[in-house]
Automatic annotation (TrEMBL):
The gene is lgt. The chain crosses the membrane at residues 13-35, 56-76, 88-112, 180-199, 211-229, 241-261. Catalyzes the transfer of the diacylglyceryl group from phosphatidylglycerol to the sulfhydryl group of the N-terminal cysteine of a prolipoprotein, the first step in the formation of mature lipoproteins. It is found in: Cell membrane. This is Phosphatidylglycerol--prolipoprotein diacylglyceryl transferase.
Length: 280
């Protein structure tokens, strides 16, 4: 039996003067960089213009960060946004909401796919969304592990043998707690491997919308239940029957169910019916 995990990891890797490199920032960036390598592989296999992965990366980075930042203030601290809108773009950039990131990514992918459809590259919104969720699952695992390195988004007190004592969290230090960040990180990692296997079996024949549906159902159903073992993000959640994260997760799961059901009512076209594209 474990005697709890004493988590005393320094969130900073190194610093030079006022400039510092932190585990969270490194893991956040790695999620995007490795994800784009995966998308490049997918583009090669499905004969899409590989040069477009650079454009897709820009859309993903901007839409994820803007969506996550705006989502945090809109969902959790609207009073701060009304008082000082510049808080969204000012350091230290504390506060990123996964539900906001989801909305931002969907808007970004829609804009990207509109551009691609006008150029006849065979990248519809659902085609891109189904494949990008593979990389988003991996990025989610990386980012949540970054939260663990930061000793933030901690779980509630528990006496389980694998509980973590977050020594660097002044608010919740020295009490054994659920490592909620690790739970979510591992859940996303499992989803990444499943989605990669799912795509590898079907590739071009993947029912459009199916992988996005699976992603949304898995991530946000688990998010709903993980909220029961996590500390509230903001004080006002203490008086709520369902906290903000749970309330936001319900409609996202319903969206996932819609796309999953739709995908099997509208199976993927035969390969000979699909538009052919040439790598560039």
């Amino acid at each position: 039996m474990l005697q709890y995990v004493i988590w005393d990891v320094n969130p900073e890797i190194f610093h030079i003067g006022a400039f510092s490199v932190r585990w969270y920032g490194l893991l956040f960036a790695l999620g995007f960089l490795i994800g784009m390598q995966i998308m490049t592989h997918i583009f090669k296999v499905e004969r899409k213009p590989i040069a477009e992965t650079d454009s897709l990366l820009i859309y993903m980075v901007v839409s994820t960060i803007v969506g996550a930042r705006l989502g945090h203030f809109l969902f959790y601290e609207p009073e701060v946004l009304l008082r000082n809108p510049l808080e969204v773009i000012l350091p230290p950039f504390a506060g990123l909401a996964s539900h906001g990131a989801f909305i931002g990514i969907m808007i970004g992918l829609w804009l990207y796919s509109r551009r691609q459809e006008s150029r006849a590259t065979g990248q519809s919104f659902l085609w891109v969304a189904d494949r990008i969720v593979i990389t988003v699952a991996l990025a989610g695992a990386s980012i949540r592990f970054g939260n663990l390195m930061n000793s933030e988004i901690v779980g509630r007190p528990t006496d389980v043998s694998w509980a973590f004592v977050f020594m660097n969290n002044n608010e919740y230090a020295k009490i054994p707690r659920h490592p909620a960040q690790l739970y979510e990180s591992l859940s996303c990692l499992v989803l990444f491997f499943f989605l990669m296997w799912f795509w590898n079996r079907r590739k071009e024949r993947t029912p459009q919308g199916s992988m996005m549906g699976i992603f949304l159902i898995w991530v946000f159903t688990l998010r709903f239940f993980y909220e029961y073992i996590k500390e509230d993000q903001v004080a006002k959640e203490a008086s709520m029957y369902l906290n903000i994260g749970q309330q936001l997760s319900i409609p996202v799961v319903l969206v996932g169910l819609f796309f999953l059901i739709r995908s099997y009512r509208n199976p993927a076209p035969k390969l000979e019916d699909e538009p052919k594209t040439i790598n560039s």
